[in-house]
């Protein structure tokens, strides 16, 4: 006689069910925020029950941490890896940063609203995770690359490396986060990956030159 399944214990493809829960959590967190997202709603969107969420993650906080570690952190970590190829060339650093981040945002449309709600805004529940886990490997390291380039005379010495990183994130993130607003004001503006990357690089390229470059 088969042993009865415990309440909340999954059946079938467990890994696929877990991925569906993460998908549903990401969609809900991006749409209404983490605080307003209930485990019941997330579970129902994934075709399960709150007990199933508890089975896989233990708590809502653990679900949030798993989402960050498995869905968000790898995206930013990959951009950081790509930047290592151009550590001595500020224009190449900018090009890699802008093009890769634009691609990540286009391929992951839930990321821009989630960024605004839970990382950028005060009290966002992903802010501390982002600062501790992504801060050192992406924005802080990029600022270090810019500092080194300034010492080599390859980057405008009047630029603040940290603020340059902030400017880059803002220039890339804002068009994605405010896409519907921008379309309402500028209906003909191109918001695809190629158009956004081309515009940002054209805007930045001349201002990145060192006055001693010529």
What is the CATH C-level name of the largest domain? Mainly Alpha
Q: Which superfamily, in CATH terms, is the homologous superfamily of the largest domain? A: Tetracycline Repressor, domain 2
Poorly predicted runs of 5 or more residues = 1-8
Q: Give the overall average pLDDT.
A: 89
Put simply, the count of helices is 11
**3D shape:** globular
What is the N-to-C order of secondary-structure elements (H for helix, E for strand)?
A: HHHHHHHHHHH
CA-based gyration radius: 21 Å
Structural domain count = 2
Query: What is the SS-derived class?
Result: mainly alpha
Share of helical residues? 55-70%
How would you sum up the major sheet?
none
* CATH architecture annotation of the largest domain: Orthogonal Bundle
The CA-CA distance between the termini, in Å, is 83 Å
How large is the share of residues in beta strands?
A: under 5%
Number of strands: 0
Overall description:
- The protein is mostly helical.
- It has 2 domains: 14-58, Orthogonal Bundle (Arc Repressor Mutant, subunit A), CATH 1.10.10; 68-206, Tetracycline Repressor, domain 2 (Orthogonal Bundle).
- 67% of the residues lie in helices and 0% in strands.
- The longest helix has 24 residues, at 60-83.
- The radius of gyration is 21 Å and the shape is globular.
Topology:
Layout: H1 14-32, H2 39-45, H3 50-57, H4 60-83, H5 90-107, H6 111-120, H7 127-134, H8 139-151, H9 161-177, H10 179-185, H11 193-205
Helix pairs in contact: 1-2, 1-6, 2-3, 3-4, 4-5, 4-7, 5-9, 5-11, 6-9, 8-9
């Amino acid at each position: 006689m088969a042993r009865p399944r415990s309440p909340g214990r999954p059946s079938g493809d467990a890994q696929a069910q877990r991925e569906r829960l993460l998908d549903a959590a990401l969609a809900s967190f991006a749409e209404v925020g983490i605080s307003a997202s209930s485990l019941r709603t997330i579970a129902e969107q994934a075709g399960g029950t709150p007990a199933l969420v508890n089975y896989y993650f233990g708590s809502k906080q653990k679900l949030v941490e798993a989402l960050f570690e498995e869905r968000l952190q790898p995206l930013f970590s990959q951009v950081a890896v790509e930047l290592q190829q151009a550590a001595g060339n500020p224009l190449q650093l900018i090009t890699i940063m802008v093009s890769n981040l634009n691609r990540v945002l286009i391929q992951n449309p839930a990321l821009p609203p989630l960024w605004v709600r839970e990382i950028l805004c005060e009290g966002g529940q992903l802010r501390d995770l982002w600062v501790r886990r992504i801060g050192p490997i992406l924005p802080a390291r990029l600022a270090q690359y810019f500092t080194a380039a300034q010492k080599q005379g390859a980057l405008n010495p009047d630029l603040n490396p940290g603020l340059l990183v902030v400017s880059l994130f803002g220039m890339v993130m804002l068009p994605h986060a405010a896409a519907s607003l921008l379309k309402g004001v500028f209906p003909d503006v191109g918001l695809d990956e190629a158009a956004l990357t081309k515009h940002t690089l054209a805007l930045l390229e001349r201002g990145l030159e060192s006055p001693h470059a010529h």
